[in-house]
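Q: Okay, next protein. This is ATP-binding cassette domain-containing protein from Nonomuraea deserti. I've checked the sequence twice, so it should be correct. Can you predict the 3D structure?
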Amino acid sequence: MISLKNLSKRYGDRFAVDDLSLDLKPGAVTGFLGPNGAGKSTTMRLVLGLDRPTSGTALIGGVPYRKIRNPLRTVGALLDARALHPGRSGHAHLAALARSNGIARRRVAEVLEAVGMAGAARRRAGALSLGMSQRLGIAAALLGDPEVLMFDEPVNGLDPDGVRWVRGLMRSLADEGRTVFVSSHLMSEMQLTADHLVVIGKGRLIMDAPLADVIAGSSLTAVLVRTPHAGDLAVRLRAAGIAVDRLGENELEATGAAVERVGDVAYEAGIRLHELRTREASLEQAYQELTSHSVEYGAGRAGA
Ligand SMILES: Nc1ncnc2c1ncn2[C@@H]1O[C@H](COP(=O)(O)OP(=O)(O)OP(=O)(O)O)[C@@H](O)[C@H]1O
């Protein structure tokens, strides 16, 4: 488990990470979202001991990274897939990592096979495509069979097959009980992959909640009702404190209440329904609402 307590990192007079406290649970994929420059990579670097916090702590299984005896066997990470010696082969890179971390040499072939890189293992890292480098970086993260995995933009550069593969990999790592922490800008992909979301903006925590709660909390998530008594139902719903929009003579849309509650209000009023369903916001829509005030490097409005 990863545990951040009042974690802050200041560069000059700006906080890249600003008083972040959260616990990442094992057995789940936690998506790490935020606009460019929000502090995601910095947070991951702090967890991995690559940067020192200005204040606060980042612990893995209760211990700071620097105090972990065999770090690769506790936490595996993919931060920058291009950060490999360009003249070295993938196989040589992994073999060196295994040697220096007390990991059995047979793991090298196993993880190369697992990421579909067995055929390209002897190629120079500098000659690999971005997608292949990503796979190699993932292989390095898996090498020590760690309980905690962190991936910074793991699907960057992957083709659709590769994206689907990463999705399946994250799922199976979490299902094995591991802690999986993954940053991404691809909302549609995160909606399919993550169980839980941590959203930050300008270094600060915006949201730490299950994916389902983030979607349900969007103003664009609504309950759609078709009934021959839409006018009556609208009155009853509003009286129950539920916001209602009439969509047509026989249709209305309720927001801010679960579908069960809307159904119950109709039932208690004896109003016959012909249709009752939820229209869920996409994660993209929910994310945009959450972060609209935290976008630091957004494009100006067209024509503004
Ligand atoms: N070594 C550094 N020196 C000075 N400023 C830095 C350094 N590293 C990061 N920053 C700044 O910290 C802030 C957070 O950057 P970070 O890379 O963590 O964001 P991010 O959420 O990962 O962004 P992206 O989605 O663009 O990768 C940015 O304003 C960045 O310019």
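A: Here is a summary of the prediction. The pocket of adenosine-5'-triphosphate is lined by residues 11, 16, 34, 36-42 (CB under 6 Å). The chain has a mean pLDDT of 92.
Q: Noted. On to the next one.
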